[in-house]
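S.,

As promised, the iron/sulfur cluster run. Input:
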Amino acid sequence: IICQRHGCEPHRLLQILIDVQEMYCFIPPEAITFIARHLNLPRVNVEGAAGFYSFLSLEPAGRYRVLFSDNVTDRMLGNEELMRHFCNRLWLEPGKVSEDGLISTNFTSCTGMCDQGPTALINGWPVTRLSKERIDLIADLILSKSPVSDWPSTLFEVNDNIRRTDRLLGEPFEPGSAIRATLMRGADATLGELKLSRLRGRGGAGYATADKWTACRDSEGTARYIVCNADEGEPGTFKDRVLLNRYADMVFEGMTVGARLLGSTKGFLYLRGEYQYLLKKLEEVLARRCEARLLGTDILGEPGFDFDIEIHLGAGAYICGEESALIESLEGRRGKPRNRPPYPAQHGYLDQPTVVNNVETFACSAMIAVHGGKWFGETGTWESSGSKILSIAGDCTLPGIYEYPFGVSVREILQDCAAEEAYAVQVGGPSGILVSWKEFERSISFDDLPTAGAFTIFGRGRDILEAVRNYAHFFAHESCGFCTPCRVGTQLQKKLVDKIADGHGTASDLEELKHLGHLMRTMSHCGLGHTAPNPVLDMLEKFPGAYEQKLTSLSFEPAFDLDAALATARRITGRDDPWAHLP
Ligand code: SF4
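Predicted complex:
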């Protein structure tokens, strides 16, 4: 039935696997065989995809699957202590299923709720602002075997926390207005407005949107696709969550404008698995837009203007935020980045010209269609026009969503969110730049501090090494394993940072980290490997105090305490003489 619901189409494989996981709490081997037969795929491809995504499980999981978010801000808010409390209450071991098969629990990467953490996903539903009291309530509900759908709705409240608005969020937006403006102005003239606006992609890389769309329009193909990248996986980023919850019309309309400009009839919104709770609401918005003839056939009565948007769910793979990996995932495969060139604008989804843009970029495109490129380009800087939405979290009194014109300084942002004790800021998430207190005059812009949105604040007294350790673990977990410099490099980096944090590091380990970082930056296949050493290298350069007192010597030191490791042998043999210790 599940295969049929998805038309037995191979590129729907990930959606089929998500539905199977929902039904059985894991992907049974018989299901893999069955799906392979019905989709006419090699079994190994189905098993490979099922094993790739962290929200899919090849082993039975509990009927209640509790995943504690493990971003650095969750750590700062005590998620480890809360996980211990939960496990003690229910006699659980992290990473294991309870003996009665009722519950399984583990940590997961950032769930995009840093402004209201600590957070856990319970069967995919986010519970924010966790406390021991909330954990006790959750434990009682699980023990009473109450279905998650019957739990008090207050548990699942997610706030938007919009604290500051500017061009994008502050202007009213009427559904249909961007499409009407595009139809009146014409496709070429609207593309001209996009160029005039100097809009650059908001996903972090900052490629000129008009150039990308023009390249797609001018590429040979039998179809063109518009893909909205809502796989907001960079730890510390959560602004797309708010855009989709509150401004979905603006985002869908930006996609529809793109469809008109490029002659596309099909679009996808790739929604990260952690935001599955938004799916129903987004589908309702799409249905409403179809009724209002803002989607479907002959949009707004324009003959031949046909466009549909389909929502495709991710399943917990950070690498799928990379546009070519996202397309692989859309086609039902493991999210492995493709070789580039060719770029998706020439050969993307199903080998056809495809535009992939971030949620915020499409929202900007809709506003540019309404107000024109000049209006948009009036704010920000020449290189970075318009505004940027930031996801602010960490050591500040007012975490949440802040929209600023590009060019705003770090210091001004820190004042607005009441981060008086700020000592460092990770701008752009782990793959971004770690900014020290000496650099707070630097500005948010593509030519200084580019960011997809994350702005994580560390106050005085925070252990920067622990934050960097969290990031090193994140990259080691999220490397897709395709190329050696990243697959091995992220693991070695994690081990070296652990060694230093555990008090066994030496000066030669620092040199090794630098050498490794250089290797990953230059030899890795995609952006994940290129940026994975950023937090470590920034710490080595800007925060010597974070690691210097932990170093033991200049020369080699083993990564664990040999003498302590012999303690068990001494106890068993009853020996404690000098010969039973290392010299
Ligand atoms: Fe995969 Fe890392 Fe290589 Fe990118 S750099 S392809 S994430 S292994």
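The radius of gyration is 25 Å. Residues 387-461 form a domain with the Ubiquitin-like (UB roll) fold (CATH 3.10.20.600).

- D.
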